[in-house]
Every structure is written in structure tokens, then in C-alpha cells.
């Protein structure tokens, strides 16, 4: 069967100097969100996992699912633009063990998976991006250039990853690892509201990623969170790559108030991080080399 060809140069807009047409219209200025006489209510934005725009009058566009892998307590996220004829979709931080489940959901929802993305080189599980590439022809694996890993698309801060008419901004948030990034949904009237930040292991709910291996640095993580995440609107939803306590989602405002590590000054934060005394992840020696090639461990060994 012939699959439609997708021009990935059009989908990945590097260091966009001027906003795309839909953002340049005066009606899409962020101040319109504030000046709306009818403020958005949660009910108007979230219906059965489908988000609409801030006024609740736009056709639903984003299909969003949070999926859990219980052995590593990892969250995988599925996003799709269902208003686009192709229904393009992407997965953030898929896990090898749950690829079948994730792909079957993609199929059930009639989506066309185009990207399998990582927020960073994981140390506790093997990414599903390699398996997904094998199972779904045409899917591109994505990871940051700063991770020094192999993938089809090596992204950098400022890149925009387009998904139909939705897009994700890339923010560099090193600290847990050198190459950690946070993907943030776009800013604009036709983008999901509130914005959503996929923080990987940089910012966890009431916690943060450890900084004691893989080029980690507590001072870098502190700066990353404060400059790249805590500067987002306070109602931005925070979706981490892990949760060990049963939380599913937080907001920037909530973490700015209640995160027990990141509400402290930098020196106190560093001391907290130096004294975590966490055992190394059980799979670190297998997971890191595999994830440096986006999980294509068998192929890399054979090559
Ligand atoms: N026990 C797990 C690993 C737990 C762990 O170290 N989690 C990491 C993220 S995965 S590398 C982390 O940063 N934790 C921060 C924290 O405060 O818990 C295993 O053996 O896999």
C-alpha cells in the first residue's frame, strides 16, 4: 500500500523567525485571552479528553491521552489534530513494553502517527521509539541534538514541531540529563488552552528529576525550571514523564507554590539534590545505551 508522503521539512520549523500566519493575525494576540468577556471554563475546554479553544466555540482539535507504564511509572502522551484530514498524531516518551497498547489506541482512534518523540535519554526503561519505527513505516523518531543520540529528527530549543495546525515548542531544560527538553503546546487562539508542558524528568509533580548521573547538574535543573517552565502562564498544565505517588497532572502555578524542592533558593535546592541518596535505576546499564539509538538496540548491534 502506498502511504502518503509527508514533508518533514515543513512539519519541523526550525527557529521560526516570524510567527505562522494564524499567529500573526491581530485577533490571535495573547491579550485576547485576557480580554475575553467570557472567560474559559474547564468544562468548555475538556470534553472526553478533547480540548477546544479558550472561548469554547472552536471545533475540537486536539485529542489527548495520558497513558501509564506501571513498571517504570512512566507516562506516555498521545496528541493528535483530529480536525486535520490526515489526523496526524505523535507520541511523547513511549515505552517499549507498552508499544502494542499505544499503537492499538492510535489505530482505534483512526490516527496517523508521524512522530515518536523522547524528552531525553531515559535511564530506567527502554524507549518505544525504535519499535514504533519498525512497526509503523514513515514514523520519525525525535530527540534533542544535545542528547548526542541517534534519531531521525534532532531538535533544538526554539524548534516548533507541527502536528496539523497544532504545534509544540521545544524548550531546552537540561539538568536531569544534558539533553532534556520540554515540549510546550503553542500559544495562540487556535492552540489548546490552557497550554500543556510535557516536562519529561525535569519537573515532576511536587518533585524533579535526579541530577546525579548522565551529565546531570542540580544548578542547571534549577535554572531550567525557573527560566523555561516557571515563566509559562500559571495555568499551563504540567505533564511529567513519571509519577511515583499517583499524581497525573499539575499546573505551573501549583508547582511554583508547592513543589518542595523548586520553591527553595538555589543553594537549598542543591543541598536537597545532593542528599536524595536514590539507588541507581535498575535498568540503567541496558536502557542508556539502547536509548542513545532511540531504542533500536538490536539493529545497532547487528550493524
Ligand atoms: N526506582 C526506579 C528509578 C527511580 C528514579 O530514579 N527515578 C528518576 C527518574 S527515572 S531515571 C528520578 O529522577 N527520580 C527523582 C525522584 O525524586 O524520585 C528504577 O529503578 O527504575
Automatic annotation (TrEMBL):
EC number per UniProt: 1.13.11.18
GO BP annotation list: glutathione metabolic process; hydrogen sulfide metabolic process
Top-level taxon of the source organism: Eukaryota
Any Pfam family: Lactamase_B
The entry's keywords: Acetylation, Dioxygenase, Iron, Metal-binding, Mitochondrion, Oxidoreductase, Transit peptide
Chain intervals with Low complexity compositional bias: 24-38
Positions of the Metallo-beta-lactamase domain: 73-242
Subcellular location(s) of the protein: Mitochondrion
Alphabetized InterPro entries for the sequence: Metallo-B-lactamas, Mito_Persulfide_Diox, POD-like_MBL-fold, RibonucZ/Hydroxyglut_hydro
Cofactor dependency: Fe(2+)
GO-annotated cellular components: mitochondrion
Stretch list, region Disordered: 20-52
Reactions catalysed according to its record: S-sulfanylglutathione + O2 + H2O = sulfite + glutathione + 2 H(+)
Record GO terms (molecular function): metal ion binding; sulfur dioxygenase activity
SMART domains in alphabetical order: Lactamase_B (SM00849)
Family statement drawn from the similarity comment of this UniProt entry: Belongs to the metallo-beta-lactamase superfamily. Glyoxalase II family.
Protein name: persulfide dioxygenase
Organism: Phoenix dactylifera (Date palm)
Lineage: Eukaryota, Viridiplantae, Streptophyta, Embryophyta, Tracheophyta
Amino acid at each position: 500500500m502506498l502511504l502518503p508522503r509527508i514533508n518533514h521539512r515543513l512539519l519541523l520549523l526550525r527557529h521560526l523567525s516570524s510567527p505562522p500566519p494564524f499567529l500573526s493575525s491581530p485577533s490571535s494576540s495573547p491579550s485576547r485571552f485576557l480580554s475575553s468577556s467570557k472567560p474559559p471554563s474547564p468544562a468548555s475546554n475538556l470534553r472526553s479528553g478533547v480540548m477546544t479553544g479558550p472561548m469554547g466555540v472552536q471545533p475540537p482539535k486536539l485529542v489527548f491521552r495520558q497513558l501509564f507504564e506501571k513498571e517504570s511509572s512512566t507516562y506516555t502522551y498521545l496528541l493528535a489534530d483530529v480536525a486535520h484530514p490526515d489526523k496526524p498524531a505523535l507520541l511523547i516518551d513511549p515505552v517499549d513494553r507498552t508499544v502494542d497498547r499505544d499503537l492499538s489506541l492510535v489505530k482505534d482512534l483512526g490516527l496517523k502517527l508521524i512522530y515518536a518523540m523522547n524528552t531525553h535519554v531515559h535511564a530506567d526503561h527502554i524507549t518505544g521509539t525504535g519499535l514504533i519505527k519498525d512497526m509503523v513505516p514513515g514514523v520519525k523518531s525525535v530527540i534533542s541534538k544535545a542528547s548526542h543520540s541517534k534519531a531521525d529528527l534532532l531538535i533544538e530549543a526554539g524548534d516548533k514541531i507541527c502536528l496539523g495546525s497544532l504545534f509544540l515548542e521545544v524548550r531546552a531544560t537540561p539538568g536531569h540529563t544534558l539533553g532534556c527538553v520540554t515540549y510546550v503546546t503553542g500559544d495562540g487562539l487556535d492552540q489548546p488552552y490552557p497550554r500543556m508542558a510535557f516536562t519529561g524528568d525535569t519537573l515532576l509533580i511536587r518533585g524533579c528529576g535526579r541530577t546525579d548521573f548522565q551529565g546531570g547538574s542540580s544548578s542547571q535543573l534549577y535554572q531550567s525550571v525557573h527560566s523555561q517552565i516557571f515563566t509559562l502562564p500559571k495555568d499551563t498544565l504540567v505533564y511529567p514523564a513519571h509519577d511515583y505517588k499517583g499524581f497525573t497532572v499539575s499546573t505551573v502555578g501549583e508547582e511554583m507554590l508547592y513543589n518542595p524542592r523548586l520553591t527553595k533558593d538555589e543553594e537549598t535546592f542543591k543541598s536537597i539534590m545532593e542528599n536524595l541518596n536514590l539507588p541507581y535505576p535498575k535498568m540503567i546499564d541496558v536502557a542508556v545505551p539502547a536509548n542513545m539509538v532511540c531504542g533500536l538496540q538490536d539493529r545497532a548491534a547487528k550493524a
